[in-house]
Amino acid sequence: QVQLVESGGGVVQPGRSLRLSCAVSGFTFSAYGLHWVRQAPGKGLEWVASISYDGSDKYYADSVRGRFTISRDRSKNTLFLQMSSLSSEDTAVYYCARDILTIVLIPATPEIWGQGTLVTVTS
Amino acid sequence: QSVLTQPPSVSAAAGQKVTISCSGSSTNIGNNLVSWYQQFPGTAPKLLIYDNNKRPSGIPDRFSGSKSGTSATLGIAGLQTGDEADYYCGTWDTSLSAGVFGGGTKLTVL
């Protein structure tokens, strides 16, 4: 079955960097766009970044643009989120999700979600 | 401060129908497709509605979606206590070139 499993979360100091990974299985990795969505403790969902099926198009929320980089590795069936210049406002559960459509340059509908990984930014 | 506006909470009696609104603008809901998510505490969101009114496989027809202009609505009929959860609308914002979510609505079944 379709599975997305996030990893890489943890406690990090302000200003430092962290890379999240999302290992996927059960579907053709190269056919689907992918997303990162986060949720701060007790808060709502916040769209972070999306990447097209072939990695040619990437989109970011204003709150992370210039600090976060989304990427994908077809050989590893893995999605990444490189996060830098972290602040306490980045503390959240980070979910990766697969888009509902195949072969689109603007993925816009997260369909299947991972269980999330918690990132805590604190000194 | 979400781009999409939802009521913080709604409530209705078991067996009744409730609607949850999601208001946006021409750059998001007005020109893009809307999706709805259900989230229980401590778990990942689940897609309920996509493309304004379509249900993924396995989602009961008690859940419905509609869109008019720059607003969208989620309907839940035959309310059950198990429907108590947070509900989020989401769409693409063409101006921001990014996805956006509503602030979420907590549903209470009386």
Q: Secondary structure elements and their pairing?
A:
The complex is a heterodimer of chains A (123) and B (110).
Chain A: E1 3-7, E2 10-12, E3 18-25, E4 32-39, E5 45-51, E6 58-60, E7 68-73, E8 78-83, E9 92-102, E10 110-113, E11 117-121
Parallel strand pairs in A: 2-11
Antiparallel strand pairs in A: 1-3, 3-8, 4-5, 4-9, 5-6, 7-8, 9-10, 9-11
Chain B: E1 9-12, E2 18-23, E3 35-39, E4 46-49, E5 63-68, E6 71-76, E7 86-93, E8 98-101, E9 105-109
Parallel strand pairs in B: 1-9
Antiparallel strand pairs in B: 2-6, 3-4, 3-7, 5-6, 7-8, 7-9
What is the overall pLDDT average of chain B?
97
Q: Give the helix/strand class of chain A.
A: mainly beta
- Radius of gyration of chain A, in Å, reads 13 Å
CA distance, first residue to last residue of chain A = 40 Å
Shape of chain A: globular
Rg estimate of chain B, integer Å: 13 Å
Count of alpha/pi helices of chain B: 0
Order of helices and strands of chain B: EEEEEEEEE
Number of strands of chain A: 11
Order of helices and strands of chain A: EEEEEEEEEEE
Flag low-confidence runs of chain A: none
Helical fraction of chain B? under 10%
Structural category of chain B: mainly beta
Beta-strand fraction estimate of chain A:
over 45%
Describe the structure in your own words.
- The complex is a heterodimer of chains A (123) and B (110).
- Helix content of chain A is 0%, strand content 54%.
- Chain A is an all-beta fold and 123 residues long.
- In chain A, strands 2, 4, 5, 6, 9, 10 and 11 form a seven-stranded mixed β-sheet that branches.
- In chain A, a hairpin with a 5-residue loop joins strand 4 (32-39) and strand 5 (45-51).
- Chain B has 110 residues and is mostly beta strands.
- Chain B contains no helices and nine strands.
- In chain B, the strands form two sheets. In chain B, strands 1, 3, 4, 7, 8 and 9 form a six-stranded mixed β-sheet that branches. Chain B has a three-stranded antiparallel β-sheet with strand order 2-6-5, with no helix packed on it.
- Chain B is globular and about 40 Å long.
- The termini of chain B are far apart.
- The relative contact order of chain B is 0.33.
- The interface between A and B is medium-sized, with 23 and 28 residues.
